Amino acid sequence: MENIPIWKLDNPYINLKLDFLRDINILIRKNFKSKYKLFKKLNSSNIPYSTFKNYFKYSYYKAGYFAPLHIFLKICKKLNISKEKIQEKVVSYKTAHGYNIIEKPILPIKITPIFDMILAHNIGDGTVIRSKGRKAYFGYRQFDETFRVGYVKKLEAIFGKIKYKEDYFLKSTRPYCPAILASAFFYYYNLNDGSFLSTSARLPDKLLNKNKEHLLAVLLGFIIDEGNIDSTAIVIKLKNPKLVNELYFICRKLGYDATATYKEEYGNLYIKRKGMKNLFADYNKLLKLYPEINLGKWHQKIKESFDIYNREIYKTRGNKEIILELIKEKDLTVNQIASQIQMTRQGVRFHIHNLEKAKEIIKKGYFGKGNMVYGYRGR
Fold first, then answer.
1. Which residues in the chain belong to E strands, given as ranges?
2. 267, 255 in Cβ contact below 8 A?
3. Alpha-carbon distance 289 to 284, whole Å?
4. What would the mean pLDDT of 298-307 be, rounded to a whole number?
5. Which residues of 295-320 are buried (b: 16+ CB within 10 A; e: fewer)?
6. Which of 9, 181, 296, 302 makes a 20 to 30 Å CA pair with 106?
7. Rounded distance, CA 258 to CA 237, Å?
8. Are 52 and 39 in contact (CB under 8 A)?
9. What is the band of 322 on the pLDDT scale with cuts at 50, 70, 90?
10. Superfamily name with CATH number, domain 202-310
11. Could you state, in order of their start, the residue ranges of all structural domains in the chain?
12. What is the phi-psi region of residue 160: left when phi exceeds 0, alpha when psi lies from -120 to 50, beta otherwise?
């Protein structure tokens, strides 16, 4: 499995295990007699000596301060300590002036399918935020609380526990991916701010050449953010035809029955019923390995669409009569009828249309936003 070591992130600041700090202090005395002599050897004129020596004090880390990793990389090189050894001893890390701390870090960072699903979220409903004086970080717009919390869980499954100032994402519609973590995506896929523009974003070639699990995770990310699921298909509509074409490429590579249409600046991907079945089967296998990829409400929606076709009522004649009997008792919408008898909305509409033509039912007005209510003409 590929991974990203901590020194590939954008200038991380670290908090170290105190026993490792003690060993470094012993080696400095043994090899250089004093910290000041080491300081001169490193030619670290970009920081004052008073700051440099603080990096070796236990109290400095106990007080919650962080030291720049690049300084310790130079120090440990002089002491013949490997970069990997430093990485093992990192207790937590963050960006230089950041508030969000990565505790119990998972290092090196492993490139699992969840890593690529996060990238899909950041392309689908994410934005790159680069405030003045701050490094770039991701904001993920999501109105569904389950998916917002799920986004943070995915981040923590890859990077470790994120200590936010507060769990603001339970109320806010935009959880953030801290700058130090965002730098992992920029580095690994050689991306820039423009790589996440909604109308021109593309999936990296490096990603499109990955195995089935990674490609499926990307597709699941777009289903969560941009998908619409009916009983006959999963539909993803984007104002980015080239990106839709790449998602279509993924479907073909994974063997999912799908088609894509393009009109002016929009593209539509349709994963057909047979493709939905194969996708859902693969998704359930991947879910056992990575529970963070859960499709939430879409999981249930897809499952229910299959249940409709498996129910006895779907395969028997007389559905029109069943629908008429329901409407005789109570005014109902198409969605309400479909839910009660476990039938597709398309099938209900077909029978409703015929009952209207036969003048057995009439339109009674609207329920909610655009949901027509039907009632029995003889009631």
1. 3-4, 13-16, 67-68, 90-94, 101-103, 109-110, 126-129, 137-140, 161-163, 176-177, 227-229, 233-238, 258-263, 266-272, 332-333, 361-367, 371-376
2. no
3. 9
4. 84
5. beebbebbeebeebeeeeebeeeebb
6. 296
7. 13
8. yes
9. confident
10. Homing endonucleases (3.10.28.10)
11. 3-107, 202-310, 312-376
12. left
Q: Which helix (H) or strand (E) segment is 155 a member of? A: helix 145-159
Q: Exposed/middle/buried for 281, CB within 10 Å: 0-12, 13-18, 19+? A: exposed
At a CB cut-off of 8 Å and minimum separation 6, what does 239 contact? Answer: 198, 199, 265, 266
Cα→Cα distances 281→124, 224, 246, 275, Å: 24, 17, 22, 10
Angle, to 10 degrees, between the axis of helix 18-32 and the axis of helix 69-78? 50
**3-state class of 357 per DSSP?**
helix
Note the pTM of the prediction, 2 decimals.
0.82
Name the one residue in this structure whose structure tokens are 């499995």.
1
pLDDT digits (tens, 9 = 90+) for 106-120: 999 999 999 999 999
As to burial, measured by CB atoms within 10 angstroms (0-12 exposed, 13-18 middle, 19+ buried), residue 181 is buried
Q: Which two tokens stand for residue 354?
A: 């015929």
Q: What is the pLDDT of residue 99?
A: 86
Number of other CB atoms surrounding residue 124 within 10 Å: 24
Convert the pLDDT of each residue in 201-243 to its tens digit.
Answer: 999 999 999 999 999 999 999 999 999 887 678 999 999 999 9
Give me the count of residues in the chain.
Answer: 379
Question: What does the block give as tokens for 356?
Answer: 């209207």
In whole angstroms, what is the distance from residue 21 CA to residue 125 CA? 42
List Cα–Cα distances, 92 to 88, 220, 268, in angstroms: 11, 31, 43
On the 0-12 / 13-18 / 19+ scale of CB atoms within 10 A, 30 is: exposed
Which top CATH class is 312-376?
mainly alpha
pLDDT at residue 216 in the model: 98
pLDDT tens digit sequence for 113-163: 999 999 999 999 888 888 777 889 999 998 888 999 999 999 999 999 999
What helix, strand, coil percent values describe the chain, rounded to 5? 55, 20, 30
Question: 238 by DSSP, 3-state: which?
Answer: strand
